[in-house]
Amino acid sequence: MWPLSRLSIAALGFCSGVSAQSPYTNSSDSNYFLPNTTGVRLQHGFETVLVQPYGYDGFRVRAWAFRPPSGNEISFLYDPPLEGPGNSNAAPAGFTYDTTIDGSQNLTLRNGNTIVRTFSPNGDNVTNVRFAFYRVDDDGSESLLTNEYAPIKSINPRYYEWTGAGYEFSAAFSFSTTPDEQIYGTGTQQDHMVNKKGMVIDMINFNSHIPTPVFMSSKGYAFVWNSASEGEMEFGQLRNRFTSKSTTLVDYAIVSAPVGDYDTLQRRLSAMTGRAPTPPDWSLGYLHSKLRYENQSELIQLAQNFHDYNIPVSMLVIDYQSWAHQGDWALDPGLWPNVSYMSQRVKDLTGAEIMASLWPSVEDASDNYATMQREGYLAMTRSGPGTTDSWNGSYIRNYDATNPDARHFLWSNLYEHYYINGIKNFWIDQADGGNLGEAYQNNGQSSFIQSLPNPISDALYHAGTQKSVGKLYPWAHQQAIEEGLRNATGTEMGTACDYVSLSRSGYIGSQRFCSMIWSGDTTAVWETLSAQVASGLSAAGTGWGWWTVDARGFQGDPTVSWSNNIDEEPYRELYVRWQQWTTFLPFMRNHGSRACNTQSAYTCDNEPWTYGAANTPTIVSYINLRYTLAPYLKAIFAQLSLTGRAIMRPLYMDFSVSDPNIVEMTRNNSNYTTQQYMFGPRLLVTPVTLPNVTSWDVYLPKTLTGSGNGTREWMYW
Ligand SMILES: *[C@@H]1O[C@H](CO)[C@@H](O)[C@H](O)[C@H]1NC(C)=O
Ligand SMILES: *[C@@H]1O[C@H](CO)[C@@H](O)[C@H](O)[C@H]1NC(C)=O
Ligand SMILES: *[C@@H]1O[C@H](CO)[C@@H](O)[C@H](O)[C@H]1NC(C)=O
Ligand SMILES: *[C@@H]1O[C@H](CO)[C@@H](O)[C@H](O)[C@H]1NC(C)=O
Ligand SMILES: *[C@@H]1O[C@H](CO)[C@@H](O)[C@H](O)[C@H]1NC(C)=O
Ligand SMILES: *[C@@H]1O[C@H](CO)[C@@H](O)[C@H](O)[C@H]1NC(C)=O
Ligand SMILES: *[C@@H]1O[C@H](CO)[C@@H](O)[C@H](O)[C@H]1NC(C)=O
Ligand SMILES: *[C@@H]1O[C@H](CO)[C@@H](O)[C@H](O)[C@H]1NC(C)=O
Ligand SMILES: *[C@@H]1O[C@H](CO)[C@@H](O)[C@H](O)[C@H]1NC(C)=O
Ligand SMILES: *[C@@H]1O[C@H](CO)[C@@H](O)[C@H](O)[C@H]1NC(C)=O
Ligand SMILES: *[C@@H]1O[C@H](CO)[C@@H](O)[C@H](O)[C@H]1NC(C)=O
Ligand SMILES: *[C@@H]1O[C@H](CO)[C@@H](O)[C@H](O)[C@H]1NC(C)=O
């Protein structure tokens, strides 16, 4: 199915301003500065802070104020990281240290080109109990990256508070910043921003909001707040602050690189949090989905149609309500009588894989309910009744993704009911945790109650409460499918993937799984299309390379009459534009719930040939283009896997050194920087996000060789 001419990776020279930088150093260079400690422990009254060299050019900091950590705390950081100096000092196992201080001593530690130094909060030298981080530049000078925020009169930058029963505490750690710093990453939100400076971001998951405390700074460092707790990220003028609402340990990592060298920061981050494996070749083709194909004969007919229209397709998707009961994790045999026959038929007709949706919810009519309740595989609540929600008249409880036995139970159902029958890819929908992943949405009460005014934080999991470990839930759900697929295919984590999952959420290091993240349930209007671009660029900054969207918007906007209606010309135009864009995303996936004038709701078409005869050739031409990009796609995914080098590349990644305008435009999130990006080394991409246009302004960034400058009009059609 693929045109198999292979482009070698080496042939893909990156077009980049960064190449002007002196190459970064590491331990293969003889002048690399090996870390001169295994760790330092500051004992400051009751409070303990442990600072250890971590990987290349990095430090890991852990802090607690009363009860020492057990060593079994949830962590999204590898210990040791995947790459680091051969010197074992940079590969700390656990809580090792060779130096103890009490705050009355000055201290400087160095790992590679990063220095950590104590300083006194009051500007005198009485107690040196704050830490500052510096980068050593090529000329030997030092640049301050950030320090624990310490004006003379301010709340302590390491602030702990016991707010509830037990020893779990809330922690708020503050770091200095300057008004000109730019912040990239932080997971995904729907806010049109690539630079998150000035934002306060709630660290609570919900549909289309995946806040994740990983960021890169324009000052040349990256930072990971390694906590599973719900909380907050604040990026102020003078202070950045990270809050965990309920935790037993504070844990963060910081790593430096020359200013503008974002590939190195991504390499360092991915060494700490996870390297993406390579996806199966087939998954780089056209992935087709809608809400929803309802039964076996309809799915086979769909495959027949792709075959008859001679349109290539690599995956067909079975959406929700394909089960008899939520939590069966099996197709309803009344609708899908012969699954292995169906998957073989689809394969014969199109070569395509099948993906099936699963929800984490279990209703009490499911055969699995009693077993799961008995074995402790269902999430409970502190108030008693379990993570109650209701869906279509049935009460449901969520399976507990944080429980390894529950993960295994889920997988054994999927294996038995889908995998051995030829459905080997899984869509983990509603994966966000809390209630059905809609933290504030009220599925149970009247529809005019749109959003709950209180947190749904009292869910109780194997690993803790929603408040203390809620950010783990979607990650552990991805892990459930990863563990299962790795077992079934007899492959090791990190190696090439044979099959994939698709998740609505994720967290620090989710890129280590054979799992794509999509941007959630979006509305089918132009404004939403435009917002997805910045969302994807933030995903890239966070380290998630396997990113995708519901092409053409998931659902209708009730205030826009044509939204999502396949028979309305304005929607057809949006559909075509959105689909063109997805050709240049890591995965090209079409999904949504469609309306129409000629069929009953929920059964409306969403296939390439159903948007008007005039549009079909355009739609098909982009699908075909996607397949001709196969060698290029494979090469950029291979780079991502080897070194963490981003696939979707916000312009700051390649041009902030060579083109000062890029830095300035990124600062205020100008549309050129939230809507344009490099897709790999060679393609500059910007989607058309307005109706009725035949030309589009594009900013051509300056490269070091001076080609390209300023704004030009490009003809688009
Ligand atoms: C170490 O540096 C060399 C170039 O100096 C580079 O080729 C290599 O990829 C680097 N390794 C790591 C792990 O960063
Ligand atoms: C710590 O460093 C400061 C600034 O360099 C210096 O003034 C002070 O004497 C040092 N204190 C100790 C205890 O060495
Ligand atoms: C580590 O190296 C730095 C930079 O050379 C030096 O300033 C510092 O004193 C050293 N610290 C230790 C504990 O050896
Ligand atoms: C710093 O510490 C040194 C040694 O303890 C002391 O002599 C000096 O007066 C201190 N300086 C200040 C500004 O406190
Ligand atoms: C399958 O679904 C299609 C579309 O909803 C419907 O027309 C058809 O009757 C269904 N067939 C069966 C066997 O349920
Ligand atoms: C499924 O279909 C295959 C091929 O037609 C047939 O051999 C098999 O018996 C069917 N299985 C069931 C359970 O109907
Ligand atoms: C609710 O479930 C019933 C089957 O129990 C199904 O027929 C119906 O389509 C569902 N309705 C919605 C809105 O999901
Ligand atoms: C898969 O898991 C089962 C236990 O559930 C185990 O017996 C088997 O060895 C595993 N297979 C691989 C390839 O890891
Ligand atoms: C953003 O900054 C650029 C470059 O400084 C400037 O041209 C543009 O007008 C600014 N846009 C906004 C909305 O402030
Ligand atoms: C430009 O950005 C703004 C938000 O800053 C957004 O509302 C608008 O849709 C964008 N325009 C285009 C053409 O994408
Ligand atoms: C597009 O342009 C046509 C003709 O100029 C006009 O009739 C139509 O309303 C426009 N559509 C939108 C969505 O602006
Ligand atoms: C941009 O480049 C073109 C072609 O190289 C050149 O003619 C033009 O003067 C340049 N414009 C600016 C503003 O540098």
Structure write-up:
- The chain has 717 residues and is of the alpha+beta class.
- The protein has 3 domains: 2-22 and 646-716, no CATH class; 40-181 and 218-273, Sandwich (Immunoglobulin-like), CATH 2.60.40; 276-518, TIM Barrel (Alpha-Beta Barrel).
- It is built from 14 helices and 36 strands.
- It has an 8-stranded mixed sheet with strand order 4-1-2-3-17-14-13-11. It has an 8-stranded parallel sheet with strand order 30-29-28-25-20-19-18-31. A 5-stranded antiparallel sheet has the order 9-10-16-15-12.
- β23 and β24 form a beta hairpin.
- The longest helix is centred in the last third of the chain and has 17 residues, at 473-489.
- The two termini are 28 Å apart.
- Bound molecules: 2-acetamido-2-deoxy-beta-D-glucopyranose (NAG) (12 copies).
- Residues 644-702 form the Glycosyl hydrolase family 31 C-terminal domain.
- It holds the Pfam family Glyco_hydro_31_3rd.
- Keywords: Glycosidase, Hydrolase, Signal.
- This is Alpha-xylosidase A.
- GO terms for molecular function: carbohydrate binding; hydrolase activity, hydrolyzing O-glycosyl compounds.
